[in-house]
Specification:
Blueprint lengths: L2 E3 L2 H13 L10 E7 L6 H21 L6 E7 L4 H12 L4 E5 L4 H14 L3 E3 L14 E3 L4 H15 L5 E6 L2 H16 L6 E5 L7 H10 L3 E5 L3 H13 L6 E3 L6 H7 L7 E4 L7 H14 L5 H20 L4 H9 L2 E4 L4 E3 L9 E8 L2 E9 L3
Parallel strand pairs: 1-3, 2-3, 2-4, 4-5, 5-6, 7-8, 7-9, 9-10, 10-11
Antiparallel strand pairs: 11-14, 12-13, 14-15
Helix pairs in contact: 2-11, 3-4, 5-6, 8-9, 11-12
Length: 379
């Protein structure tokens, strides 16, 4: 497997060597893809899923080759922080032989890196779902998950039409992901003639959510919608909301279905619903990916791993189509992708870099995520 993790010390040594003896890349050299994943901090476990998904795709890609060359992952730790993500990307972008990047699943981190991505002028595949990320004029960002304009509409559609609930409490992280997701859900509910009885923000990495839970209980809501950024926050909240006797239906953003969240929250999430960009039984491609992932890593796949799996495959496809590692040609090839069956769904990139437009409704059945149906959003 062609992969290396570049440490700060190794980068310094490599930089010194380059200064001493400049080297021109040859056609036999691997095509390098820079990855910004967490290996330390509260999202370290989630980061291992992201890396494993990318590795799994890399194995198959390298069996066939890309432009008759191998692909290689160059990974930097974002430390689960915005400054860490910016630093990680700066280390990668300093390496001129990196052809493209795979960025964070955290919208707030993608937002922090975006100005430097624009300066670097090379494609970055992202997993952050904040709608603003692909609407701020950065032509190098390509999203491998559906954005939260769609998740808000799907949460509202299922809660109002299928569950027939109209008194909504919405709990959300006050970061870029949570705020934009909550706004999208609020607008989707208003389009159905519903004003939420509670819009309650919280700060990431809190240790106690009692005040938030009490606000939900006192609101008189008959359904809860949520946008949690970090799985550990979700786990704490889930346990506290059950301990304080709140038993209303709960429909969460994709983090509620993540393997890490399921492990942390346990029975506290039993019976909840989620909008999932990845669901094992949604398509033949998602089923195939899940089977291969579990065989390779002895763990259940989730959306942390599915989007990076797709990102590597999409970049390989685009580079082969372009016949080049020239950034502009890769970008043009990505924009031309139509009908690609990925683990996350069918990719059809628009001019903004969004490839997917729907979500799967799933239910937590005693710890097992059960696919209910897919809802695609028409624009």
């Amino acid at each position: 497997m062609n992969e290396k993790v570049i440490s700060r010390r190794a980068l310094a040594i490599g930089t010194g060597a380059l200064l001493a003896a400049p080297r021109i890349a040859s056609a036999a050299d691997p095509i390098k893809i820079g990855c910004v994943f967490p290996s330390t901090g509260p999202a370290a476990e989630a980061g291992s899923f992201q890396l494993n998904g990318a590795r799994l795709a890399l194995q198959a890609v390298n069996e066939k080759g890309v432009l008759d060359r191998k692909m290689e992952l160059v990974v930097e730790d974002d430390q689960t922080t915005n400054p860490g993500a910016v630093l990680a990307f700066s280390r990668l972008s300093a390496q001129r032989d990196i052809a493209a990047f795979i960025g964070s699943i955290r919208s707030t981190q993608v937002d922090a890196m975006a100005p430097d991505v624009l300066k670097a002028g090379k494609p970055m595949m992202i997993g952050g779902t904040s709608p603003t990320l692909t609407r701020m004029g950065n032509r190098w960002l390509f999203r491998c998950r559906p954005n939260d304009n769609y998740s808000g509409k799907v949460i509202a559609e299922y809660g109002v039409t299928d569950l027939q609930k109209r008194k909504w409490a919405v709990v959300y992280s006050t970061d870029a992901f949570g705020s934009n997701g909550a706004k999208a859900l609020e607008e989707a509910l208003k389009a159905k003639g519903i004003t939420p009885v509670l819009m309650q923000g919280y700060t990431n990495q809190a240790s106690d959510y009692t005040a938030v839970v009490l606000a939900v209980r006192q609101s008189g809501a008959d359904v809860l919608g949520s946008y949690f950024t970090f799985e550990n926050d979700l786990g704490i909240f889930a346990r506290q909301i059950r301990q304080l006797g709140v038993r209303i239906p709960w429909i969460g953003s994709p983090s509620i279905t993540n393997t890490t969240a399921l492990s942390l929250a346990g029975p506290a999430l039993f019976g909840t619903f989620g909008v999932a960009d990845f669901a094992v039984d949604a398509t033949p491609a998602s089923k195939d990916f899940a089977t291969r992932y579990e065989a390779a890593y002895k763990k259940m796949a989730d959306n942390q791993s599915s989007w990076t799996f797709d990102a590597v495959n999409l970049l390989a496809l685009a580079i082969n189509t372009a016949g080049s590692t020239d950034p502009e040609k890769i970008r043009t090839a990505l924009l031309g992708i139509r009908g690609y069956a990925g683990a996350e769904g069918e990719y059809n990139f628009d001019a903004n870099g969004d490839g997917l437009r729907g979500y799967n409704i799933v239910r937590n059945d005693a710890g097992k995520i059960v696919f209910i149906r897919r809802i695609d959003v028409q624009e």
